Amino acid sequence: MGLQFYVQNALGGLAYGSLLFLIASGLTLIFGLMRIINLAQTAFYLLGAYVGLTLVAHGTNFWLASVAGGAVTMVLGLAVYSAFLHRYHADHLTSLLLTLGFALILDDGVLAVWGGDPRSIAPPPGLAGSIHIGTLVFPEYWLAVIAISFTIAAVLFFALQRTMLGVMIRASVDDEEMARGLGVDVNRAFFVVFAAGAFIAGLGGLLGGPITSAYPGLDGEITPLAFAVVIVGGMGSLTGALVGSLLIGLVNAFGKAMFPELSYFTIFVPVALIMAFRPQGLFGRKL
Amino acid sequence: MSLLEVDDIHTYYEHSHILQGVSLQAESGRVTALLGRNGVGKTTLIRSVIGFTPPRTGGIRFSGESIERLPSHTIARRGVGLVPQGRRVFPSLTVEENLRLGGLPGRAGRWTLETVYTMFPRLRDRVANYGGQLSGGEQQMVAIGRALMSNPVLLLMDEPSEGLAPLIVRELERTMCALKETGLAIVLVEQNLPLALAVADTAYIISKGRVVFHGDPQTIRTDDEVRTKYLGI
Ligand SMILES: Nc1ncnc2c1ncn2[C@@H]1O[C@H](COP(=O)(O)OP(=O)(O)OP(=O)(O)O)[C@@H](O)[C@H]1O
Ligand SMILES: [Mg+2]
């Protein structure tokens, strides 16, 4: 195993981890704030991918199509949130079943509209090549995905740490009732966070397409990884989602490369360790 | 007409009938003390007023308007400030963010970051500290400052002296007297009887979810029977 092996897998792992962050950031914030375990978060990703690839096939610019995929997902997510979910915040079982049902409906909808064949998605023109440094090869698109995800992470951190809306959201995660008692319209914060979570996951669909491609069932494959991220990072923590995503991405890449027959198992080694020794996750608050 | 008029409210937690027909009034520029043993429903009364646990029956009027069916954030924005039992300072927010959040209702008045820091100079050295890193006394200052930032006309204070050193309690007493001078109405729940009697203009004693005494705080100081029967001291 030469240097290229490590570079390749590290970069692949970071790129995949970056995509996981786009899903897990919403997952962790939605749970931290509303106590909703959104099982449809990866279905949002898949829907974003299909909407995006359809637009690209009709000549839309790749980046614009990604944003459009996010927007469509966000509108659909908000409709479901407003119609059903918002009533069941504290009710874990009901909200869990609701999001599971919604994920199944989305899956079937995707299958009905786009069919069952896997769709490969080409990177946007200009990013399809690789950068060569000595004997090492870096796929340009992987680097781009990492850069975009880190930019989105930076925007999220800024919004959460430096804006009044962020203060309201953090306060509501800490103590929702007290926030209400100080005049915070917590429901508005819920709405905004659910919208942002759905948008970013949907946006990630097409962005991740060149790496994951799109096919029915992809969401079901990503869901355990996304939840592994949230458990490792700590529920409700954006920092945790970022660190957890990169960690799980790397473990996933190296696990698959080094122990292909154990690939799923390797992911859950860190999860089991965290659950045993730090149940609140790396950056979560004490349970 | 009083600023706050609680009229025969019945408040429940699920099936437990906690407040069983409580009525009380609070006036501007006065401290209304709410006394009683542990678990008699004092906090539940505060929670009923701010809308955390709305009464099932009965009415609550604030500035002449019914508020018992309004959501908490609307009640807060109308001018009800809350210093809750246990302080409930947000641990993920800095001192300054805690205060700025309190100012969210955007009501104009004398209280700003600057005037809060003038009242509690120690907080100025702690602006960037997170809520979890403060001493009990500092947390109490944040909790009070945070409530004042909305420039309330009614301040609900639930056991503000709980867990504070005697010196800090003296400070708290001065603070409450100063706030009263500004015309604020204060509803004060206190276990610390000397403190409560020192600042209160009128007092209620609650027992088992009902008001059993209402009158001059002096009476409680002098009447042994009231004290032993309802306060256990
Ligand atoms: N969330 C709740 N669910 C069910 N019962 C509750 C809840 N909170 C309080 N109670 C019960 O309601 C009763 C009144 O509680 P409350 O907190 O109002 O008392 P309190 O007078 O404030 O007491 P303390 O002096 O200890 O603060 C108590 O018997 C308590 O056990
Ligand atoms: Mg109490």
What report would you give on this structure?
The complex is a heterodimer of chains A (287) and B (233). Chain A is mostly helical and 287 residues long. Chain A has one domain (3-277): Orthogonal Bundle (ABC transporter involved in vitamin B12 uptake, BtuC), CATH 1.10.3470. Chain A contains 11 helices and 2 strands. In chain A, helix 2 (41-57) runs antiparallel to helix 3 and helix 9 (218-233) packs parallel to helix 11. The radius of gyration of chain A is 19 Å and the shape is globular. The model of chain B has no long low-confidence stretch (mean pLDDT 94). Chain B contains 10 helices and 10 strands. Chain B has helices at residues 42-50, 72-77, 95-102, 113-119, 121-124, 136-148, 166-181, 193-199, 217-222, 224-231; strands at residues 4-13, 16-26, 31-35, 57-62, 65-66, 80-83, 154-158, 185-189, 202-207, 210-215. In chain B, helix 3 (95-102) packs parallel to helix 6 (136-148). The longest helix of chain B has 16 residues, at 166-181. In chain B, the strands form 2 sheets. Chain B has a 6-stranded mixed beta sheet with strand order 6-7-8-3-9-10, with helices on both faces. In chain B, strands 2-1-4-5 form a 4-stranded antiparallel beta sheet, with helices on one face. Chain B folds into 2 domains: 4-79 and 153-231, P-loop containing nucleotide triphosphate hydrolases (Rossmann fold, 3-Layer(aba) Sandwich), CATH 3.40.50.300; 88-149, no CATH class. Chain B is globular. Chain B is α/β, with parallel strands linked by helices and 233 residues long. Chains A and B meet through helix 6 and helix 7 of A and helix 2 and helix 3 of B. Bound molecules: adenosine-5'-triphosphate and magnesium ion. Adenosine-5'-triphosphate is lined by residues 13, 16, 18, 36, 38-44, 85 of chain B.
